[in-house]
Amino acid sequence: MPASIYPFFFRHVIFPSLDLANGTHVSRVHRFLEKSQWLPIDRLLDLQSGKLRTTLDWAAANSGFYRSFWRDAPEERRARSLYPDLDGVPVITKEDLRRRSDEFPLPAYRGRVLRVRTSGSTGEPMVYCRSVEQESWFWALRIRMWQWGGYVPGEPYLTLNLNPREAWKKRVKDVLFRCSYHGFNANSHDVELVLEELTRKRVRHLIGYASSLYLLSEAMMRLGVGNPGVRSVLSTGDTLFPGYRRAIEKVFGVGVVDYYGAGGEGFHLASQCERRLGYHLHIENSVIEILRNRKPAGPGEIGEIVVTQLDNRAMPLIRYATQDVAVASAEGETCPCGRALPRIQSVQGRVPDIVLAPNGSALVVHFFTILFEHLSGIRQFQIIQSVPDRILAKIVTTGDYTKEATEAKIRDAVSRATDGSLAVLFEYVSDIPVSRSNKRRFVVSSLSTAPLALDSPFETTQIQAIPS
Predict the structure, then answer these.
(1) Per the domain annotation, does 380 fall within a domain?
(2) For the chain, which end, N or C, has fewer CB atoms within 10 Å of the first or last residue's CB respectively?
(3) What is the pLDDT averaged over residues 150-165?
(4) Residue 439 belongs to domain with CATH number
């Protein structure tokens, strides 16, 4: 079949056939999403509000977990909300769900259930249950997000991911979607194989973890290799740091479109459009709040992303603390793209990636990535905090590293950002291993463990910037 015809065949034949085989409704939801993205904000909020009330009523009627939790939760678990139906409703955590996981999927839900087992960075297993409706929304939203970045359904794309691709159903789907899949991470990557496949299969779209895309771009720069024909690049999975974005865009010559979600929990929450000015929230499928100290974060403030799913009857997630950190935007800001979907400013990593200083300051992971990006002679670094008044900087050096001058610059930047309240110690190592999830963590704090949505341990409201 000619390549130019396949996208039409994919949309009108393969897409519906996959729904029929899987019992899903991805193609129908996707058609709705292609229209809903252009609805006025009042229509979108009415849709969201109606689905939210239905979700709360369903949980109250059919979930013993939510009935007892809502009744017995202490005041410190209850948070304010800009949504009247959620105001005062307690925030739940993964641990709350893990303790009563045997109650899910809810017996009242009669549809097909997808069970997804995750371990995350802690290695503690958790099983999430997704209804067939939520699964349909999950995939339909993913395709819409990719389209915002330039993807055309049915055109060949290549994915750089961290997970093995062994199940035969996934391999069949890859063939039908014209997807090339590579396990490409901090410890394992074959640049030549990826480049050969990009060229041979005339791949037009590159999708992957931000760190994997960055590693590929760095390797291509070292090899002096240019863009073999990729028209769009989409990143997800871990944080797209400014240095990552610059390197990827320099190599491929196209803007990187970033999106945010959680595969285990089964939601896509926010993504950049082609303008790349903040992240649009997908409010047709969820309620997304940025909370801190049990109240909504203000514009420019750091808070924790708290999500309420609107289409998962098997295991409703209602005010679920994700442990992901974001920066809130001002209400009513419009995007030049013409979509009325609300936005947040940025996604800033994980709550355990925050360094806390005795003076009440907080240093997010971006503080350190920007700082170390401008220091020469450093191949890898990791910041570890286990006590309140000091951090340990593990560093892997290269030949042009100047120890005294570099340590002085790091100490000075941290001191200015924390009013001198945080000391920096140094340890030089030959390598920094990746985490259990195969991601490289730049900051590991054992002090940032409580949900930021409920109990902010610091006072500062703005992201700490690198002093000039």
Answers:
(1) yes
(2) C
(3) 84
(4) 3.30.300.30
Last residue of a domain, one of 348, 382, 417: 348
- From the list 48, 46, 55, 82, the residue with the least C-alpha distance to 318 is 55
Half-sphere exposure of 33 (CA within 13 A, CB side): 25
246 and 388 inside one domain: no
393 shares a domain with 248: no
Cα–Cα dist 223/314, whole Å: 49
Q: Which two tokens stand for residue 320?
A: 């679920």
Angle, helices 403-417/365-373, rounded to nearest 10 degrees:
150
363 and 338 together in one domain: no
Residue 177 belongs to what H/E stretch? helix 168-177
Tell me the C-alpha to C-alpha distance, in Å, between residue 150 and each of 51, 253, 265, 272, 283: 30, 14, 26, 12, 21
* 89 and 46 within one domain: yes
**Do 285 and 137 form a contact (C-beta atoms < 8 A)?**
yes
Show which of 348, 363, 385 is a domain's final residue: 348
Please check the confidence at residue 209 and state whether its pLDDT lies above 60: yes
Length of the chain: 468
pLDDT higher than 60, residue 122: no
Residues sharing a CB contact under 8 Å with residue 246, sequence separation 6 or more, in sequence order? none
**Residue-number span of the structural domain to which 28 is assigned:** 6-348
Angle subtended at Cα 184 by Cα 181 and Cα 188, rounded to the nearest 5 degrees: 135
The CA dihedral of 78, 322, 443, 392, to the nearest 10 degrees, is 30
Please state the pTM of the whole predicted model: 0.88
